[in-house]
Design a protein that fits this description.
With 205 residues, the chain is α/β, with parallel strands linked by helices. The chain has one domain: Vaccinia Virus protein VP39 (Rossmann fold, 3-Layer(aba) Sandwich), CATH 3.40.50. It is built from six helices and nine strands; from the N terminus they run ααββαβαβαββαβββ. Strand 1 and strand 2 form a beta hairpin. The longest helix is centred in the middle third of the chain and has 13 residues. It is globular. The termini are far apart. It is an enzyme of class 2 (transferase). Its main location: cytoplasm.
């Protein structure tokens, strides 16, 4: 039923569908929400954050057109669920989280699942050290009012970046940027709602 729901909503990439089926989503939600883990809705997690609805995870993953040799950057680890999905489709994943509690919990979950090609980093996803990158793919899982240039600059030629762009309170639009040898192509995809991407590392949690 889970895969059927995603197919009905337009997800057609077989590798993405298979991965969504294989990654145990119930391990990434709070115990009280486990009965509803596979419903197509976002769920609350610690630190006032959320785990995105399955369709959005599958859709963003499909838009990245991942291959096994790709090095992927994720901004906003959250529960670690999106990183677990990415880990099965890409070569290496670096995921950045500003809340220590979320970073530590996600790291433990990913290790338990054997996602050994994922590195969880506590840090500011909006102000990364200059030596990080470049990447073949970048995925942002928190709302940005605009995509920072220093993030776009980390994309390899042929690379894809996907991020929800719009006001922090309200509806955002998923934007896909593709870097070519001659510049950046921008495409608007679908409307979404994400928690805001905030600067800095959280002082607590």
């Amino acid at each position: 039923m889970f895969q059927l729901t995603l197919r009905r909503r337009g997800i057609s990439d077989q590798a993405v569908l298979r991965t969504m089926e294989e990654v145990p989503r119930e391990l990434f939600v709070d115990e009280a929400d486990r009965d509803g883990a596979y419903r197509d809705s976002a769920l609350p997690i610690a630190c006032g954050q959320t785990i995105s609805q399955p369709f959005v995870v599958a859709y963003m993953t499909e838009q990245l057109q991942l291959q096994k040799q790709h090095r992927v950057l994720e901004i906003g680890t959250g529960s670690g669920y999106q990183a677990a999905v990415l880990s099965r489709l890409a070569g290496q994943v670096l995921t950045v989280e500003r809340y220590r509690k979320l970073a530590d919990t996600a790291r433990a979950r990913l290790e338990k699942l054997g996602c050994h090609n994922v590195e969880v980093m506590l840090g500011d996803g909006l102000n990364l050290p200059p030596n990080i990158g470049p990447f073949d793919r970048i995925i942002v899982t928190a709302a940005m009012e605009q995509i920072p240039e220093n993030l776009v600059e980390r994309l390899e030629v042929g690379g894809i970046l996907i991020a929800p762009v719009g006001p922090h309170q309200g509806v955002q639009t998923l934007i896909r940027l593709t870097r070519s040898a001659t510049g950046i192509e921008r495409k608007e995809l679908v409307d979404v709602r994400f928690v805001p991407a905030l600067p800095g590392v959280a002082r607590e949690l």
